[in-house]
Amino acid sequence: MDAIPVTFHLADDEKAYLEFCLARRRELIALSDAAPEGKVIAHCESATVEIARLQAHQLLSDAIARRVANAEKN
Predict the structure, then answer these.
(1) Domain segments of the chain: what residues?
(2) Burial label, 40 (beta-carbon count in 10 A; 0-12, 13-18, 19+)
(3) Which of 15, 12, 34 is closest to 23 using CA atoms?
(4) Closest to 47 in 3D by CA, of 70, 65, 23, 24
(5) 10: helix, coil or strand?
(6) How many CB atoms are located within 10 Å of the residue 35 CB?
(7) Cα separation of 43 and 51, whole Å?
(8) pLDDT tens for residues 43-69?
(9) Where do the H-state alpha helices sit in the chain?
């Protein structure tokens, strides 16, 4: 896979989210490569559900923190 240069202007939280997504993608690729024959889908599906749960939890936590910070400003 060839890497291509890409430039984005991201906020710190967006950068962290993008890095998180890319890291989980790499984990899933490694997991699928290491999964036993005939078990790739089951292993990756289970991991994907956990990754989605972690992402949702982090997004909700961030949203709550923003709401609290905004409420404290007002």
Answers:
(1) 12-73
(2) middle
(3) 15
(4) 24
(5) coil
(6) 15
(7) 12
(8) 889 889 988 998 899 889 989 999 999
(9) 12-34, 40-73
**Alpha-carbon gap, residue 68 to 74, rounded angstroms:** 10
CB 38 within 8 A of CB 50: no
Residues with Cβ < 8 Å from 32, sequence gap 6 or more? 40, 43, 44
**N-term to C-term CA, the chain:** 50
Eight-state DSSP code of residue 35 = S
Say if CB 32 and CB 43 are below 8 A apart. yes
Q: Is 47 within 8 Å of 29 (Cβ atoms)? A: no
The DSSP letter of residue 37 is: T
pTM, full prediction: 0.69
